[in-house]
Prior knowledge:
By secondary structure, the chain is α+β, with helices and mostly antiparallel strands. The protein has helices at residues 2-29, 36-57, 78-99, 128-132, 220-250, 286-290, 295-309; strands spanning 67-74, 102-110, 116-124, 137-144, 153-165, 179-184, 200-205, 210-214, 262-267, 273-276, 282-283. Strand 4 (137-144) and strand 5 (153-165) form a beta hairpin. The chain is globular.
Amino acid sequence: MRQAARLRSNIRTWLDTRQRVRDALELAELEDDSMAEELAAEADALQTIVDGLLFRAKLSGKYDAEDAYLAIHAGAGGTDAQDWAAMLLRMYLRWAERRGFKAEIVSEMPGDEAGIKSVTVSIQGDYVFGYLRSERGVHRLVRLSPFDSNHRRHTSFCLVEIWPDVQEDVDIEVDEKDLQIDTFRSSGAGGQNVQKNETAIRITHLPTGLVVSCQNERSQTQNKERALQVLKMRLLDLEHQKQEEEFAALKGEHVSAAWGNQIRSYVLHPYQLVKDLRTDHETGNTQAVLDGDLDAFMEAYLASRVQAEH
């Protein structure tokens, strides 16, 4: 039903846009000067719609239309890296808000002094995974550290992971003996927000080393079900990544999933610049990017993928 509703919405958008183009062309053929201003405004509006449709047409991957899980892990850089993880979380939450998507924090591990060590977020909306595919990889921050008494320049790293939240049943068998399941108390701001019982769940998939935790549901059973769902999504995504790497190897391309394979640099000092190292797309408006203005980077990545595939 959800897929049918999405298809109906897409078809309606294309048909409505085609009709608006036809109506505008008919008005233009009248050559009525009094309509010039109205036609110019309609042309601008149609250009925006067509640009959006062109962007959407690039989202043709198998799971591009699905919701997604996004995970951020602080890497090298100590407290600065944990603070950088919190900045990235804010950036993606702002991006989701700008697009009208629903975002929910599934699990979060706070930092020792500031920021967060890791966080997993569920983001729901049309084509979320397609948009967020561009964000998978290592994100590098260069700035004057607010945690350094000498205010020296520091470089921090965070790993961003993305995998689709496939709505239908996932055909992946998970053997119970391959799972290590731990329980712990949900973290919170204190008072009534802290669970007195160990309702939070952490599942480790021993063959792959994947670790998934969930703490936002009310009961241990609900958290376990959600964690198993996330684990299956990650295993599915891991299998697809392996297939992509094998295909790329057959094409003669080098594929590296190493931690040092950074995809984007955010430089706040000595100059202001955000640059994607895969597409060379860059901007000096670092604050806008950190406030969630990521569409230009996502579009540049999708365009490069389409070009590479053809």
